[in-house]
Amino acid sequence: MPMTRSERISLHKKQERLQVKDGEPILSELKDSVPVLRNTSEGIVEFVKIKEKLHKKGFSPIGRISDAEGSHSITDSAGDLSAANETELEGFYDGLGEKINEILVILRKQNLINK
């Protein structure tokens, strides 16, 4: 099955990165269904405008990231490296598996690989 033009274009686009800005946004500066991240007095908050209504979701810090001699380690707020790594790695592997499956679906649609 051939890909549509929009599917071909989306394969070549770079994913836009969310940037964290300061303060709460005003409704007029937001685009419908496009999330923005803001650093507010409540912490990091995601805002999204849907049908002229503003929605928000807060984020909680789970630990700190340190870079030592080229290796990255994640610790929870109490400094417990093993518990933080286990939780972070589970999430990382779940997300990685999903991305690999998405790539395989695209490659199969393009007949670049067999099932």
What does this structure look like?
By secondary structure, the protein is an alpha+beta fold. 32% of the residues lie in helices and 28% in strands. It has 2 helices and 6 strands. It has helices at 5-12, 81-109, and strands at 20-22, 36-40, 43-50, 53-58, 64-68, 71-75. The strands form 2 sheets. A 4-stranded mixed beta sheet has the order 1-2-3-4, with no helix packed on it. The chain is flat. The model has no long low-confidence stretch (mean pLDDT 78).
Quick synopsis:
The protein is α+β, with helices and mostly antiparallel strands and 115 residues long. It has helices spanning 5-12, 81-109; strands at residues 20-22, 36-40, 43-50, 53-58, 64-68, 71-75. It has a four-stranded mixed sheet, with no helix packed on it. A two-stranded antiparallel ribbon has the order 5-6.
